[in-house]
Amino acid sequence: MFSRLLILLLVVSCSTSKPTPYQKEKKKEGYRDLTFEELRISSFKANAHTKKDRAILYAEFRAIDQCLSEGKKHANLIDVLDKTIEKEITKSTGGAWGPSIYGGAYPYYSRYSTIGVGIDYSSISTNSWKETLTFPHIEIYYTCSDRVFRPRVQFKELTAEEIKHLVKDVKGALQIEKIMENSPNKENLESGDIVLKANGKRIEKVFELISLFNADKKEVKLEILREGERKRLVLKSEDITQEVKQAEAEIIKKACQDKKIKKYNEKSELLKNRLCKTER
């Protein structure tokens, strides 16, 4: 009887919870600063009452704050890894609740997948329904710099399985999905090209390629595969710092002035942040 009451209390408390505020991670909710090789990672985990776009906003805001605090002008946001987990629960109007543990494979919405474990609440009542709870978990890959450069090309990551009939090794690659109209690479690249190497190094992830560009290295030598033939060419980039500056201003404004965000961050560190004070 006690265990059933405990589960019911958990469900009720969950339904009255507020969205996760902007805070340093505690009890597996909030932001966390990580490093991956030469890259930085701004991670934000949230509860099921937090919208995913808000978790992304908090992660971006954290990256900007970190770079400015270290004397750099901008956060070079290179890649977004969505590790959000969805869990399905069964709710009922009945009073006889009982927990059962289940496991399932939940896709990250990007390039990885994981095994999620949750609690499935069940009832003997026939008046029940299923609901899907979403627990946002966003990771922003970034570097701190004064100027930001991009090739203005959209890439797709390919797994080793997807290209095993083209390349003998067991590594993945990048494929060009779209070349922007204002890209400096319109003449030398084609949609569908498969990028194997960058500056002589095997490349598999978007952040590995984009992080190569900076003020001192505006061009990268590529080895690509086009219609079964290997080619070598140069991938050019251009300065997009002004665009980044405008995007950062929008992120800061949204985080600091949005009424709904302010409502749930009155007691959190967000509104006390120097970026929000400057925005006012």
Description:
Helix 2 (52-69) packs across helix 4. The protein has 280 residues and is an alpha+beta fold. The strands form 5 sheets. Strands 10, 11, 12, 13, 14 and 15 form a 6-stranded antiparallel beta sheet that branches. A 4-stranded antiparallel beta sheet has the order 1-2-8-3. The chain has 2 domains: 2-145 and 244-257, no CATH class; 149-239, Roll (Pdz3 Domain), CATH 2.30.42. The termini are far apart. It contains 6 helices and 16 strands.
Give a brief outline of the structure.
By secondary structure, the chain is α+β, with helices and mostly antiparallel strands. 23% of the residues lie in helices and 39% in strands. The chain has two domains: 2-145 and 244-257, no CATH class; 149-239, PDZ domain (Pdz3 Domain, Roll).
